[in-house]
Amino acid sequence: MALVLRFFQLFESLGVLVMLLLLFAVMSFANPVFLKYNNLTNVIITASIIAVTGMGMTLAVAMGGLDLSVGSNQALTACVAASLLNHTNIPFTFAGTLLLGMAVGIVNGLIISRLHVPAFVATLGMMSILRGAALLYTDGQSVLIMGHRDFAQLNSGKVLGVPMPFIIALLTLVVFYILLRHTPFGRHICAIGGNESAAHATGLKIGLIKVLVFGLTGMSAALSGIMLSAQLLYVDGTLGAGLELQAITVTVLGGTSLSGGSGNLPGTLIASLLVAAISSALNILKIAPFYQYLALGSLLILALALDTLRRMVVQKVVSGGAL
Amino acid sequence: MNSVVTSTPDTPRSNYRQALRLMRYGLTQYTIQWLLLLVVIILSVTNSNFRQEANLLSVLRQASFAGIGAAGMTVLIISGAFDLSVAGMLGLCGVVLGKLLPDYGILTAVSLTLLLGCLLGVVNGLVVTKVRVPAFIATLGMMYIYLAIGFIITNGQVVPVLNREFRRLGSGNFWGLPTPFILMVATYVVLLGILNFTTYGRFIRAVGSNETASRVGGIPVDRVRVFAFVLVGLCTGLAAVVLTAYLSSAQPNMATGYELRVIAAAVVGGTSLKGGQGTLFGTFAGALMFTVISNALNLFNVGAYWQYVAVGMIIIIALAIDALRHRFFVAGS
Questions:
Q1: Which residue range is the domain that position B66 belongs to?
Q2: Residue A323 covered by a domain
């Protein structure tokens, strides 16, 4: 019994990693092109952009919330970043774009905590509004980023052979991890996710914490917007459709329960690598792109079924029943 | 001073109060319906194009595509779950319908499509109740899967629909009203009957209000949930029939974003995402509201991009009003 529990504990922290390694093992036999340096770099870059948004989402989910507006937020911030870059310099672009993303997140937080609109619907509405804003801002046109070699370095640059986007993702991971695990703020996030009325009763400033968390989620979406514009160098208002679903998928796959109360940030990063690797593997094997949906959907259901099984086992152990 | 007011029913003061309470009830219980009426009246007075018969009929037709799906979704949300897979489901049903039509004739093809919708609903229901995955994320996964199956069946091609008789289901009229609208009204009447006059219908509300109590009380909670998912599947199948007929073609991603439109119509109509609360009448008005607003924006030559902003605003404002209303009632009682 304890052994089963131990297995699930191990699986929760390492399950996605095992799946990732398994994929690499299979692919190294099926088609060695997958393991080529160029392909791996591409996988890592794609994964990093998903991961940065996913980690912001993980914070919101740990608090028992959810942010559906990240995809549109990414589109808006990518467009704003591109035009800011064409008119000003890089530091100003970074500051302006991140602030915009944070402001959007703060508005989300205010709608949720002040107007008492459920997070799902509030961010659903914002998703539509931001999509409109992105299209209005660009007037439906594409924005081309020209003459900024060092900005493109954000995507193609390497430090000790590690692609720059991955470094950004790792930095985000470190900051968010410390925030969630080693500060009172992080403990408050988990407390709200675990039991909001209990957290309220202990005197936590729920409204403020919610606004800050959604601000961080918005900011991470903006960071991924900057990364995306550095990757594409050619952005428009239709980018990032479906990103919110991807971000939720990697959060859940990474071992963060949608019921809130805890967040597994390293898991989110590894799950992003898994999702990006799967779609790259399917591309290399020349499998039609729509099978990727099938893979993603089945993976999601599988991960959740295992999560449910684990919770049932834990509950049995806690209640002292025999297996 | 006696602070407890014992209201005797005969005094004019209490009559006045009762009238006031009735008015407050009418205003707060039917917020979206009043808002819809107000918007329609204002638009009819200010815009001569809006009140044209052809335009009004077109609004009704446009409203019915999301409206039909929203009916099923409302019942499911009342039962305390929701289904994000309807877009994939609609695409899959539409594609299958398009493939069946040339060989099997209208009646068989449509019946099989509705049956397929029910079947997909059963699958969703079983994944949610038996695998015990939260509905939100389970149906998200199922959406990917349905979308993929649709693409695999069609190999990424658009399925054309050439049958003229069948196309009338989407673009034709019946008794002077658009056929989709008639089907939509029929859907709401049937679901209203199920929700209010059958045992399972009443179980749905009970399960949504308090699952544990329902379980203890002997209600077959899982079976009720699956039943609600089947209703969503059935409505989505019908929406697929109407939309395929209207577009004269089908493809797996023909309904991208449908789940959000459908849920938005239900939520704006006053259905609480927590379950247990909601009316089909509200959803009906909610679905019309979105179409009326987008029609008005078109008539006033507001660009398509502003419509995204408007739709988002409607969702947030309607829900903020709803939340305010709840607090008002809790504070008042």
A1: 52-262+278-301
A2: no
